[in-house]
Amino acid sequence: MNPTDIPAYMAHVGVAARAASTAMAAAGTAAKNAALRGLAQRLRAASADLQGANARDLDAARAAGLAEPMVDRLKLGPAVIDTVAEGCEQIAAMPDPIGEITGVKRRPSGISVGQMRVPLGVFGMIYESRPNVTIEAASLAIKSGNAAVLRGGSEALHSNLALWRLVQAALVDAGLPADAVQLVETTDRAAVGRLITMPEYVDVIIPRGGKGLIERISAEARVPVIKHLDGNCHVYVDAEVDLDLAVRVTDNAKTQKYSPCNAAESLLVHAAQAAAFLPRIGAVFAAKGVEMRCDAAARAALAAVPNARLADATEADWAEEYLAPIISIKVVAGVDEAIAHINRHGSHHTDAILTTNHPNAMRFLREVDSASVMVNASTRFADGFEYGLGAEIGISTDKFHARGPVGLEGLTSMKWVVLGQGEVRG
């Protein structure tokens, strides 16, 4: 099919995906696991070839002047290849959710009613930069019995094509349809426009990338979207707290890695702990070159910290996702103000309270309106692997269907099943 004729090409992709989804929904666990283990073997065996394809993308990215952090995301080195291969094996080892029947209850009429877990059908995945997402999405699609249409960024086209060919070979070897995972082979942006407006072929769209991409998909899609726009994650240090724990967890939440969506961007500190806590965490941030954008009370508490990079926070800072060594800091009167601030300015992604006060911890868990809410733990744990999901296809801050890290179960739905012995309704 000629990928330059975008409407015809995408219709062809959609028809093939829908047909493949029927076969994948009926596929046995053994075949799906064989495909995943075969894919892992192929990835390791093709490491040199994959790095060669990746080198073409890296050279083109540098020639185009792509920023070095973005170039770094494109790299498909031996460690990354081994990690995604191991991920395939881990997913193969996980229980198959498809066909599980739960909650069966016998009704007075004699029928038994329960729910069965089934695939969503076809999902479209639109993502940027990281070619490892191609394998993560493909492996989750295979195990969950779905078909997937993948559209990676133009900057990773050669890498994604090389990875996708391995996926298709592994599917065929396991007796599964090659079209269960398709990669859109054109960089034309019109292909995205068609993919997100084909409800007859695609059941859900999952965008993974920058805020601009996700806003565009959300605005233009005619297919349901699983998404999060940004990650303005908060850490709140309560009045009653273990200060050593608070310093350690806050440091990790902010500085363990600056670029992920689950890194802390805002720090709220109870007024009773500002004088004790802020100079300690301020010294840690100063040593690591983290800029602190403060309200007046926080700035006063941090004023004596040597080499501290301090600035006055603006109203915009309270809602900002920096993805950089910058953090906003505000002193609050208590848990009420902290919860109100988070619900107003946060992105409903991940927020944490550090406290030894159990009632305050329980209030925070109940009342903070976010996909992940934590007590005495780093926001960096908001991750599918860390949650025991094996892998994730993204993070959702939506309230319908999936919320938080989206793993295998997030790619499934429940349907009602009724078991009878000839009962009729009177």
- Give the mean pLDDT: 95
Q: Which residues form runs of ≥5 with pLDDT under 50?
A: none
Biggest β-sheet: strands ordered side by side in the sheet: 10-9-11-8-7-12-13
- What level of helicity do the residues show? 40-55%
Which key features would you list for this structure?
alpha/beta; 42% helix; seven-stranded parallel β-sheet; 14 helices; 426 residues; single chain; 16 strands
Secondary-structure blueprint:
Layout: H1 6-26, H2 29-45, H3 47-63, H4 68-74, H5 78-93, E1 101-106, E2 112-119, E3 122-127, H6 132-143, E4 147-151, H7 157-173, E5 181-183, H8 190-195, E6 204-208, H9 211-220, E7 233-237, H10 243-255, E8 264-270, H11 274-287, E9 291-294, H12 296-302, E10 309-312, E11 326-332, H13 335-345, E12 350-354, H14 358-367, E13 372-375, E14 394-396, E15 404-406, E16 412-419
Parallel strand pairs: 3-4, 3-6, 4-5, 7-8, 7-12, 8-11, 9-10, 9-11, 12-13
Antiparallel strand pairs: 1-2, 2-16, 14-15
Helix pairs in contact: 2-5, 2-7, 3-7, 5-6, 6-7, 10-11, 11-12
Describe the structure.
The protein is an alpha/beta fold and about 425 residues long. The protein has 14 helices and 16 strands. The chain has helices at about 5-25, 30-45, 45-65, 70-75, 80-95, 130-145, 155-175, 190-195, 210-220, 245-255, 275-285, 295-300, 335-345, 360-365; strands spanning about 100-105, 110-120, 120-125, 145-150, 180-185, 205-210, 235, 265-270, 290-295, 310, 325-330, 350-355, 370-375, 395, 405, 410-420. The chain has a seven-stranded parallel sheet.
